[in-house]
Amino acid sequence: MRQVAHASEAAVGGIIGQVSSTATRLQAMVEQVTAAATQTAVKSTSVAAAAVQAASNVGMVAAASEEVGASVVEIGRQVDGPANLAQIAVAEAEHTAGLVQELSGAVAKIGDVVALISSIANQTHLLALNATVEAAR
């Protein structure tokens, strides 16, 4: 009877050791996931800042293009010469303004992607925290 009790005790001790080892490994994995989520959040913030800067730069380029366009139109009015030259300049200015608008649209899309990345990073961070809580149980 004692042998059975000792054997059972040894088996339970082995199982407890395995569970403890598994919990330790799980805790290490959770810490890795948490670190990765934190890095993702930091990088997402950096990308978002870069996108905001790019959007600001596009805005400045758009404003400068509008000023150039207005200047070209004004020069066309004031300068004696062929009207065709002024029309060509105006057409080029309008074309440039269209390109700037396309660039602004691209920056807006970049902003959307950055927002999505930031959202995913936040969700990953929450999942890592949840895993930490579950591992602590």
Tell me what you see in this structure.
The protein is mainly alpha-helical and 137 residues long. It has one domain (2-136): Helix Hairpins (Orthogonal Bundle). Helix content is 96%, strand content 0%. It is rod-shaped, with a radius of gyration of 32 Å. The mean pLDDT is 77.
Topology:
Elements: H1 2-78, H2 83-136
Helix pairs in contact: 1-2
Report a brief summary of the structure.
This protein is mostly helical.
Number of domains: 1
What is the H/E order? HH
| Count of distinct strands | 0
Instruction: Assess the beta-strand content as a share of residues.
Output: under 5%
Helix content: over 70%
Classify the secondary structure makeup into a structural class.
mainly alpha
CATH class equals: Mainly Alpha
Shape label: rod-shaped
Could you tell me the CATH topology label: Helix Hairpins
Overall pLDDT, averaged?
A: 77
- What is the straight-line distance between the termini? 35 Å
Number of H/I helices: 2
Report Rg.
Answer: 32 Å
Quaternary organization: single chain
Major β-sheet annotation:
none
Protein name: Methyl-accepting chemotaxis protein
Keywords: Transducer
Pfam families: MCPsignal (PF00015)
InterPro entries: MCPsignal_dom
Overview features:
mainly alpha; single chain; 137 residues; 0% strand; Helix Hairpins; 96% helix
